[in-house]
UniProtKB/TrEMBL annotation:
<dbReference type="Pfam" id="PF10442">
    <property type="entry name" value="FIST_C"/>
</dbReference>
<dbReference type="Pfam" id="PF08495">
    <property type="entry name" value="FIST"/>
</dbReference>
<dbReference type="InterPro" id="IPR019494">
    <property type="entry name" value="FIST_C"/>
</dbReference>
<dbReference type="InterPro" id="IPR013702">
    <property type="entry name" value="FIST_domain_N"/>
</dbReference>
<feature type="domain" description="FIST C-domain">
    <location>
        <begin position="219"/>
        <end position="357"/>
    </location>
</feature>
<protein>
    <submittedName>
        <fullName>FIST signal transduction protein</fullName>
    </submittedName>
</protein>
<feature type="domain" description="FIST">
    <location>
        <begin position="24"/>
        <end position="218"/>
    </location>
</feature>
């Protein structure tokens, strides 16, 4: 596995393009600020650097490269596999009338199952129901292959997200990358570091990822009461106080953040499903808790690995970044301390993270977690 990385800061050029020219048919992961990915010539610019590259774009709420976090940049990681291969498929939510589960099923059906090790998803993050999308993938994926990924971001603006494969980034795109080969070792894990507080309430009215009522009362009204003065900054301020959602007594709770609000019916749109009957609590965290959570996520991803990771692909949540503020890079440093200094690190801050819990291989949608997908060949 050969890996080359570069970065373009807003108003500048890429720093070192020569090493890219030596790669043959690499996978290019291009994560960047949404405004920079809207530039008309962004695809042509990357394609010129690596004409044979397979280019996957995703907009972010912050770009991760090595042990640094950037806000107004485009970062590129090119991977040339020596004994393995990959296949890339894409589709658009608007072609499925927002039936995200069906989209996941159809996209997964396009991948040959023989020797499939893992599928990594770069998904639009503004309108997709990430839970339904993952459920569709899981129905067709098979137990032997892993699944992870993330929902694209748009800083804390929540206006629109962009993604694409081998074309200019656009809205609504879902890109799936299938990795093949016996030589590959791919592991993934996630961990949060958030603590529930306040009374536990019951979801009494919801529809997929739209939350209407808690304990028979308008959900948004209750949430505003908790936020107080911070309610005027919704939905951004909600990132600091996500919801712990527990659907079954013996299941791990899922963390859900609010993507949007509807003042007309006092509802909240969340990144994934919030089933009726689930128990809900508010959550909060600190800088140290989030950094420790990143360390825990890295250790879970490293458990039982036979080889050291050559590439560490990170997807962390915008809410974690807002809490960490000037200390955001500390969680990346925690990851690096575990995966090793020789592992290339790339990734992005997202509106949702896809990974299994440590005790099983079934992928779930998470919020407010650090998610790692580790590669070696």
């Amino acid at each position: 596995m050969r890996i080359v990385q570069d970065i373009k800061i807003k108003g500048e050029q890429f720093l070192n393009v020569e090493p890219f020219k030596k790669l043959k048919n690499p996978l290019l992961l291009v994560f960047g600020n949404r405004y920079m990915l809207e530039e008309d010539d962004i695809y042509k610019e990357i394609k010129k650097i690596v004409p044979s590259g397979h280019i996957v774009f995703g907009s972010t709420s912050g770009e991760i490269l090595e042990d640094a976090v950037y806000n107004d940049s485009v970062v590129v990681t090119a991977i040339e596999f020596e004994r393995s291969s990959f296949i890339i498929k894409c589709s658009n939510v608007y072609d499925y009338n927002n039936n995200d589960a069906l989209l996941g099923e159809k996209l997964m059906e396009e991948f040959p199952t023989k020797d499939l090790k893992h599928v990594f998803v770069v998904s639009e993050g503004s309108i997709v129901n990430g839970s339904a999308l993952i459920n569709g993938f899981e129905r067709k994926k098979g137990a032997s292959a892993g699944l992870s990924g993330g929902l694209c971001g748009d800083d804390a603006r929540f206006e629109r997200t962009l993604a694409s494969y081998n074309e200019n980034p656009k809205e609504g795109e879902i890109i799936a990358i299938g990795f093949y080969g016996e030589a590959l070792e791919i592991t993934s894990a996630n961990y949060g570091g958030w603590t529930p507080f306040g009374p536990e309430r019951i979801i009494t009215k919801s529809n997929n990822n739209v939350l209407y009522e808690l304990d028979g009362k308008p959900a948004l009204d209750l949430y505003k009461n908790y936020l107080g003065e911070k309610a005027k900054d919704l939905p951004e301020s909600a990132l600091l106080y996500p919801l712990s959602v527990k659907t079954k007594v013996d299941e791990e709770p899922i963390v859900r953040t609010i993507l949007n609000i509807n003042h007309h019916d006092n509802s909240m749109v969340l990144a994934g499903d919030v089933p009726e009957g689930s128990k809900v609590q508010l959550m909060m965290s600190s800088v140290d808790d989030i950094a420790n959570g990143a360390n825990k996520a890295a250790k879970l991803a490293m458990e039982n690995r036979k080889t050291k990771p050559e590439l560490s692909l990170l997807v962390s949540c915008i809410g974690r970044k807002l809490v960490m503020d000037q200390r955001t890079e500390e969680e990346i440093e925690e990851v690096k301390s575990v995966v090793g200094k020789d592992s290339f690190i790339c990734g992005f801050y997202s509106y949702g993270e896809m990974a299994p819990f440590s005790e099983n291989k079934t992928c779930r949608l998470h919020n407010q977690t650090m998610t790692l997908t580790l590669f070696s060949e």
